[in-house]
Amino acid sequence: MTKGTALVTGASTGIGATYADRLARRGHDLILVARSADKLEALAQRLRAETGVAVEILPADLSDAAGLATVEQRLRDDAAVTLLVNNAGIAGEGQIATADPALLTTMINLNVTAVTRLTAAVAPGFAAQGNGTIVNITSVTALMPEAFTSVYPATKAFVLAFSEAIAAELGPRGVRVQAVLPGITRTAIWEKESLEHIPAEMIMEVDEMVDAALAGLDLGEAVTIPALPDIAGWDAFVAARTALRPGLSLAHAAPRYR
User: Fold this and answer.
1) Which domains are delineated in the chain?
2) Which residues are catalytic?
3) Rg of the chain over CA atoms, in angstroms?
4) pLDDT in tens, 219-247
5) What is the pTM (predicted TM-score) of this model?
6) Contact 126/175 with Cβ under 8 angstroms?
7) Which of 106, 88, 45 is nearest to 188 (CA)?
8) Helix (H) or strand (E) holding 14
9) Highest taxon of the source (predicted)?
């Protein structure tokens, strides 16, 4: 990867903090974004001491319009940024019949709106330079919405489709786009009690997940599913989806509807 500055959202803990650690050790300067200034500063001090890279913290709540606008402006203005990691997100809305509408709005703002607008903020500069990388953290639940809650998988399905679309749009202009689909990963997004009821063989440690995602980036993958044993499974899924295209938009309804 071309070195430069990496901006990582949701960087105070878990996947985001691990990305910050790994990217610093690869030689990237960092801009760390999350709500907790204290946690960001503690991580920044450690990474400065251990790696010698420049680390700036940018405290912001990306579910809030003002916080999102602050980070958008930084991405538009800072030509040193060569890598954006859209990691910030929340889950845990529960059943739709009893979900808190305010939580649903916050989830969509963070998981969908922030990813879209931060990408839109950085894309013009990347495209103009013919260089840059966008990493969007989505989820395997995007591929199996019936197996989880309703809104979280829908937001992650958006991120996957969005990533594939912008890869097609920006790839010819020299911009790399990677969607990362973790399975269950041991982070704060999962309550400890919830993990206790999940088979251990289904839970990946965050270090291994991020290292696999970065290996996928190095391999040039547009979609990385760290736990998937054989990438041929994903290729077959995409091929089956592509095979539907000729019949998806026709002048007349299918015979079964007539």
Assistant:
1) 5-257 (3.40.50.720)
2) 152
3) 19
4) 999 999 999 999 999 999 999 999 999 99
5) 0.94
6) yes
7) 88
8) helix 14-25
9) Bacteria
